[in-house]
Amino acid sequence: MRPLLERHGDRVISVLSPILLLVVWEILARFHIINPLFFPTPSSIAAKFMQLAGTGELWVNIGVSLRRLFWGFVIGGIPALVLGIVMGLSRPVRLFVNPLVASTYPIPKSALLPLVLLIFGLDENSKIAMVAMGVFYPVLMNSVTGVLQIPRIYFDVGKNFGASRWKIFLTIALPGAAPFIFTGIKLGVGMGLILISIAEMVGASSGLGYMIWNAWQLMDVETMYVGLFIIAFLGFVFSLFLDEAERWLLPWRPA
After folding, report:
1. Other beta carbons within 10 Å of 239
2. What is the pLDDT of residues 38-47, one digit of tens each?
3. Whole-prediction pTM value?
4. Homologous superfamily of 58-249 in CATH?
5. Could you tell me the residue ranges of all domains in the chain?
């Protein structure tokens, strides 16, 4: 048992904390220390989950939200990654783009939803655009920071050996900024989940956000919690996956 805990102790602790929270919640709701009308027991939420999963409604909504999240991440994350590294490598580009980023980043992305709906309509494009905006800034800003923290001597060595700008981009800037890029991706995924839920509450007929909003209109509290738990679970799974990917791709980083 001890060697197992030494190898997987971090993962065990990560899984144990939410389980402990659910157990405490179950006890408090059963003894009416908290109002079960607003905080139904996790067991009743699990029963509702099984019901929705059995009808297939839940899987359809999860699939729709994940598809929107994926395309939003591709459309917002990849350009942000490339632009962020270019900004880190080029001072003129950084000076030109920084004021635009500094002025647009503080605008709440949820406040832009009416404008996004006006431009893209009520179809898939508006949901994807919301995710793309939420992902863009964390990836961009962390990519720039990652490149700027690379010691200058690495770039000088690359130039002395005749490396092209493309080679410097791929072999120095991208690997050197990778830890910060992963941080930006993690923040971007979380922001994407938040914004896709908000976007799906307006003008959507599917998705986890729609499911939560529709359940609120019907006062179906258990279904609301199922949607919230699914979003929380997706965030947890994405975080674990990205942590594992970072350990595999960046083995020199401390755990």
Report:
1. 14
2. 889 999 999 9
3. 0.83
4. MetI-like (1.10.3720.10)
5. 58-249
